[in-house]
Amino acid sequence: MSDKVPPSFDRANAGSQGFNPGLIVLLVVGGLLLTFLIGNFVLYSYAQKTIPPRKKKPVSKKKMKKERLKQGVSAPGE
Q1: DSSP of 31-73
Q2: pLDDT tens column, 33-74
Q3: pTM greater than the 0.85 cutoff
Q4: Continuous segment of H or E residues that includes residue 23
Q5: Which residue, of 16, 52, 54, 59, is most buried by count of CB atoms within 10 Å of its CB?
Q6: Which residues are within 8 A (CB) of 7 and not within 5 positions of it... i.e. 6 or more apart?
Q7: Separation of alpha carbons 66 and 73, rounded Å
Q8: Does residue 66 contact residue 75 with C-beta atoms inside 8 Å?
Q9: Torsional sign, CA 58, 62, 67, 69
């Protein structure tokens, strides 16, 4: 009787018992990474459509004065 092995411990049946744990971890990590990348792309494209473009920095009075002098228009107050 001791030579009989229960079917759950049979080595011939071990391959069809379930998924490889390494494969499960790989699928979970790959799925999370793929979800993260797709989510970032969706958020980026949504932001590009909805958020207005940045305003340009205001030009300083000194630069405006130089530009006007280049164009031949005298600056006010001179």
Answers
A1: HHHHHHHHHHHHHHHHHHHHSPPPPPPPPPHHHHHHHHHHHTP
A2: 999 999 999 999 999 999 888 888 888 888 888 888 888 766
A3: no
A4: helix 21-50
A5: 59
A6: 13
A7: 10
A8: no
A9: positive
Residue 10, CA distances (Å) to 5, 21, 22, 77 in order:
7, 19, 22, 99
Q: Are 43 and 36 in contact (CB under 8 A)?
A: no
The Cα 58–Cα 19 span in angstroms is 62
Token pair listed for 15: 């391959």
* CB-count exposure of residue 65 (10 Å: 0-12, 13-18, 19+): middle
Give the helix/strand (H/E) hosting 21: helix 21-50
